[in-house]
Every structure is written in structure tokens, then in C-alpha cells.
Amino acid sequence: MSQMLNYAAPLGRLLLSFMFILSGLQKISGYSGTQGYMEMMGVPGALLPIVILVEVVGGIALLIGWQARPAAFLLAGFSLVSGLLFHLVPSFGMEGMAAQGEVISFMKNVTIAGGMLMVVAFGPGALSVDKRGAAVPAE
Fold it and tell me: Where are the alpha helices (DSSP H) in 30-95?
């Protein structure tokens, strides 16, 4: 059981962080388009550098397990706020499948925040920078 725990945490961190790192890097390459979309949704485009920083640096911190709890807390909040701003509110003015897709996207953001809060609660696991050399206790 302890071997499974040794590998479950880093795999979970990888899966949770992958979307943030990739999304942040894509925002760099599509900067003007992302900035325009943010402004269209009523969010100041000047916030884009902060968004990129949160996604890339927070995602990498979570991935390697460095300051994992604060990074996960920050990414949980980011997921909830971005879900509210970009997925929940627009769905009120939509109909049919478009609205359903936005609600599903919002629920995915809520689910990601839940996963991040699990990292906040239980830590990054043994195979992380935060826990260098620590072993998972045997059951």
C-alpha cells in the first residue's frame, strides 16, 4: 500500500498541474487573442500577465511539489474565479447545448478546485521537493 501512495501523489500532481502549465504557455503564444477574449468577458486584459504567472508558476510548483499547499490553494481559487467569470455567468444568456457546455465547464473548474483542496489538506506526498527524502509510513 505504501508503494502505491508513493506514486499516487506525484501522478495526481502531474494530472492536476498539466492543464495549468499548458494553458499558461498557450496564453503566451496567443497573447492578443486571449487578452481580447478576457476583455470581451469584462475582465481587464491587463491582468493576463498575472494569469499566465499563476498558471505556469503555480502549475510547475504543484508538479514538483514545491510549496505545494500554497500553490494548490492559489490554483483552487483561480479555478473557481475563472469558472465564475468565464463559464457560469455566460451560460445564463445562452440556450440549449451552448449553455449546457458552459455549465459542464464550470463544474469541471469546481472539480479541479476540489482536487487542489485535497492537496492542501493532505500535502504533496513523499516524492516531492517539500518532502525530500520523507517516506510514506507503512500501514
Answer: 31-40, 48-64, 68-83, 89-91
